Amino acid sequence: MRSSAAWGSSWRWKRNAFALRGGRTVRSTFWINPVFVGLLLLAGCSSLLVRVHITGIDVDPRILPPEGGKVKVVVKTYHADEVQVKFRRTNDGKLFLLSLSQEFSWDILVGEQKWDGEIRLPANDDPEGRDHVYHVTVQAYSYEGWDHSRDAGKVVVKGKGQPAATEESSAGTENP
Length: 176
Known about the structure:
Layout: E1 17-19, E2 25-27, H1 34-44, H2 46-49, E3 53-60, E4 63-64, E5 69-78, E6 82-89, E7 95-99, E8 101-103, E9 112-121, E10 132-141, E11 147-157, H3 167-171
Parallel strand pairs: 4-11
Antiparallel strand pairs: 1-2, 3-5, 5-9, 6-7, 6-10, 8-9, 10-11
């Protein structure tokens, strides 16, 4: 009977060869190709190269009249599968969501995507005539779970001006 050390594993090194349990030997030469190793590293780190990235945001117009109106948003991304724009009204925290649709652009040949959409913001009915300020955030998602958010500034729906003061109401407030 042979010692258990010789049969410890089904493969063992023997001068550039592997010995199988049945006494058969398979000769093999190992060499490392630096290009192949580089490609393996690249494939292993490829998720870093395909993360979602927002490269540009255009929101127009930034100031709307008291009646509200449409706001157009154009976003440029890399590797996004979905893009949403959040308009959060700072006065009361109300949230308006806009899902953008992808539009064709020749930039897609180099990987850049262009997304656009419009949202109608409501009229400003603030009784005190204050402006409604909307904080805009763009968020891009991928199906692999990556996401990227960017602040896109503010959009303002102007408030209705307070009624002009009459001479009677302002007579008592003048300084002598």
